[in-house]
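Minutes, project check-in

Agenda point 3 was the complex the collaborators sent over. CS summarized: two entities, 1306 residues total, and the question is how they sit relative to each other. Sequences were read into the notes so everyone works from the same version.
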Amino acid sequence: MTSPTRLASLACGCLRPPGLGKVRMGGFWADRIEATRARTVPILHRRCEEAGMFDQIDPHRPVPEQRIPFSTAFGGSAVRPVGGNVTAQMYWDSDVAKVIEASAACLAGKRDPELEAMVDRIVDMYADLQAEDGYVNSWFQRMQPGKRWLNLRDCHELYCAGHMIEAAVAYFEATGKRKFLDVVRRYADHIIERFGPEPRRPGYCGHEEIELALVKLARVTGDRRYLDQARYFIDQRGQKPRFFEVEARERNEPPEAFAHRAPDYNQSHVPVREQTKVVGHAVRAMYLYSAMADLVTEFGDDGLRRTLETLWEDLTSKRLYVTGGLGPSPDNEGFTRDYDLPNESAYAETCAAVGLVFWASRMLGVSPDARYADIMEQALYNGALSGMSLDGSRFFYENPLESQGDRHRWEWHRCPCCPPNLARLVASIGSFHYGVGDDALAVHLYAENDAELSVAGRTVRVSQRTSYPWDGAVRIRLGLDEPSAFTLLLRIPGWCERPTLRIAGEAVDLSAVTRDGYAWVRREWRDGDTVELDLPMDVQRLYAHPDVRADRGRVALRRGPVLYCAEAVDQTAPVHRMSLPKTGTLSARFRADLLGGVAVVSGPAETASAAGWEGRLYRREPAAAEPATLTAIPYFAWDNRAPGEMSVWLHEA
Amino acid sequence: MTSPTRLASLACGCLRPPGLGKVRMGGFWADRIEATRARTVPILHRRCEEAGMFDQIDPHRPVPEQRIPFSTAFGGSAVRPVGGNVTAQMYWDSDVAKVIEASAACLAGKRDPELEAMVDRIVDMYADLQAEDGYVNSWFQRMQPGKRWLNLRDCHELYCAGHMIEAAVAYFEATGKRKFLDVVRRYADHIIERFGPEPRRPGYCGHEEIELALVKLARVTGDRRYLDQARYFIDQRGQKPRFFEVEARERNEPPEAFAHRAPDYNQSHVPVREQTKVVGHAVRAMYLYSAMADLVTEFGDDGLRRTLETLWEDLTSKRLYVTGGLGPSPDNEGFTRDYDLPNESAYAETCAAVGLVFWASRMLGVSPDARYADIMEQALYNGALSGMSLDGSRFFYENPLESQGDRHRWEWHRCPCCPPNLARLVASIGSFHYGVGDDALAVHLYAENDAELSVAGRTVRVSQRTSYPWDGAVRIRLGLDEPSAFTLLLRIPGWCERPTLRIAGEAVDLSAVTRDGYAWVRREWRDGDTVELDLPMDVQRLYAHPDVRADRGRVALRRGPVLYCAEAVDQTAPVHRMSLPKTGTLSARFRADLLGGVAVVSGPAETASAAGWEGRLYRREPAAAEPATLTAIPYFAWDNRAPGEMSVWLHEA
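CS then shared the predicted structure for the full assembly.
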């Protein structure tokens, strides 16, 4: 048996995701990535063009109209958008940036000169647009000239800057091309010159994003000033006097006229370190917490770490859907009250689940703890992945856990933030599977892939062979040019009840080596060493806390990391009439013919009979139960076939 | 045993409610009426003044501003209105008219010179406002002069006329004063001159109301022209070309720019006689159907009667809350899809339930059928009565069947239609208890009261002694100056399983005399004859049709006509955690000390324990059940004490 070893060198900041292109995904994720590359990314470029985003950016084109009928923009009925008009948006730079970032992730996995040329053209536009002083924002330069930096609360200016920085970093990583990176660096320098302690001006953005982007810029350039600037924005947030109120008064607006009313909408109600509840707009919150986690990693900031642990506990114990979706309310696109998790009206924006994956991933940089990896996996395979159709062509902005059959994926949206956000996550998903440190290699997620990673100064080739998430048998082979001592950290998923591990053919006592949900295996690894991790996947029933009103008397089904739902097309009775007996056996079967290949869960159920109810709406006897069969599919794959009802939480009889 | 007799003369139109002041209520309703008289009606007058309604009507005052901050209008924090401003509304005449009608009903029950003087002052304003040609509408005469009759679809012009007519008829009935009746007659004549077949102009109102009002005007004046005009408006509705589309084009507006989108919003999508589904705005629908029922009564119109039966069936078998509330959606204040009856988000406007009482009452004029009386009673005691606090001072506009504790009665509302609507119903509730015909007397509702009715040309004094709705023992004594032969129709409520009847001490075989839910007892009645009707009230469990998603696995409790709910203040555990065992015994007890005296239902329940859930949101075992006691109060009486959760539909374990 291998004995547990605590890596002395495993301190804050030592586990980082590998860069773009280091992990080549196969199996499950290869399909998702290929759909993203072949369908989603071209669609994204086309929609940006059709909506007029490039007209807004390109200084050589005429300044566009602000309102374009959707039918004109998208050539009529071929596209089914939400809403009646495209309205030029102040945050379009961020959408274009996410499209670049998604494109970059695809390019890192597979060269594509045509796609690269499309990105280069956008980069050229931005380079041409950039002002002498470094400022670059198509809305304020082209649509609203002269209004720069007057309203950080509402105008997404630093938010757009952040996404452009992320995009430029990704494009540099993927292609080695520096032009866009140079543009955003000049812009970041301009921002640093402007915002900061006296004699600079105070400020931070109404939509967090610049903070995490500056950390990325610091890491890729090695320039600490960007890190310090991120810390400034975070530490300044919520200090008194509240910047957004000062700024509103300077605009001669009453601060209380804020459309979103309370300052907790953008997490500026109290200083960040004093926050104890996840509040407000969910995407904003996730991006803020992601940046905070980065700062913990970079600065070893224990105070901020404690804050994040409190916020994590609050989210995961009171405010998170079982899908990993978050932010139940359309009113603030965000959080409401503890245990307020309605199913049919769930907002649960795709971007918020994507943001949670980002935050969780960064918490793993702080500390390898399966609490974070479990939630990352839960959000990834369910509430995030549900945002895109299997073929990559249609999208959910909201991710309800129940539908009467009237909710369908759309081809485009007035606020098109989600498709490129999910696309960049999917295309770069390999990076989320591993964490590499000076003396350690962590496997956070399991999936078929081949990675080439740098650990302890040496290259380690990792081959994962598995049918995950449909089967829990994982075979890892390490490829090393020479023997190398380091700690291999293997996540033991919280959902798995009887995991077993063999290293180089030898059984490992997991209870002895597991700490915070990771098995720590330190040894001198040799080329060809194998890891056999078996994670049996039972179909599990999940129940919600009794204060979750919407889920009283209901059960959800999970197998491995995948959450299931009943969709009308698979059932012999209406979904809302079905219930599961408390004791019925549920079994899973992989069906290669269905939904691109998924494990289906089925078992005996009951359906409430409508017999005897003719012409009656209420009566003194409940409906009789008739036998039925439940067939449940992965939640992420719903609404890819005939439209109909769907429910994650099933009645239990 | 008395044998069943079908009244030969009981044809369409023969059963009409007695006029105002004929029935003096005691017991349960005396309390409600007194609250209305002493609290609600004075509040209504005060709010009309404070909101500026009288400023708008009175031609001797300056034309008011259109927007008045609520805090100014209502003297600050003493009133807790919904919304930030009073905005002068085109439908204010209707609100003032309903206040007059409620006042009239109170005056019919109890003289009150001060109240009468207040009404007289308003009547004087309207008389002074009335134009030479008879037109009278304060919005279009004072706020929007020159814009009469340009937009019947949206501007409530005929709707306001209808409410003024109803008010004038009621005030005439209550006081004998003709001044207001003369005003509205001249206005009705003006309307008749304008709207009708060629050479008059086509038209009907976007909010039905004028139709039923014209029937009332015809009945009180004996002038058939008003009846014919009502029939014109009803038969014209939905004919092609659609009037609202023609009218919109005349205003140079695209007809499809209708804010409420579809013509079924106001039931003008197809001709009224072809309608088969209750659709659109619920109050509009109820007022339309009420007028249609009046026409069946007045014209013996069998086609219209069949339409109404279809619509009734549709409403009561697919689209009605168990409270008798209706119209689930705030979007159209109306109907959506079959079985779409969400509880927490239920709109179920007070006015809609009041309108259903009106419609049901008129269906009883068409035919004495307990189907109609049962629904009338259900809506009255539950979904309508819930709209007013026990003391008559606070109101619900929406009547959800479930609350997390955040829904409370308000003191005033931007759209103040509901309080005077319910007030006029409560103050005139005696009229709804009886139907009188040439040769018959029907008792539709049971309650402590003394009535003086005219049947078969003779005065019949009816004394009901009962503690209804808390007890089902009803003792009726007939007072006659001389013996008189007529049929007494006694409703046997659908909720009652073992009714018994004794007439003048002799047992009656109800199965032999009951038809359509009414016991028909024809005999020569003598002074002092007694009717002993016993309607045992069990606590009953009700279940909803299996297609009502919101009520799956849930049960509602009813006792007699009263529907129950669990309110937080009475429970030892949070309402949402409670469940009723399927087989537990529930008992009722009258508590004079509670909520002005109500029967309380209680019994063993379970509560889901939060033990073991610390820090967890989902787990593999359901929450353990702990014993608890359920205490349920009448739904209509909720939110009269400490704020908290409420639920009508309780989980069944």
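Noted in discussion: The longest helix of chain B spans residues 27-51.
Follow-up: revisit at the next meeting once the mutant set is ready.
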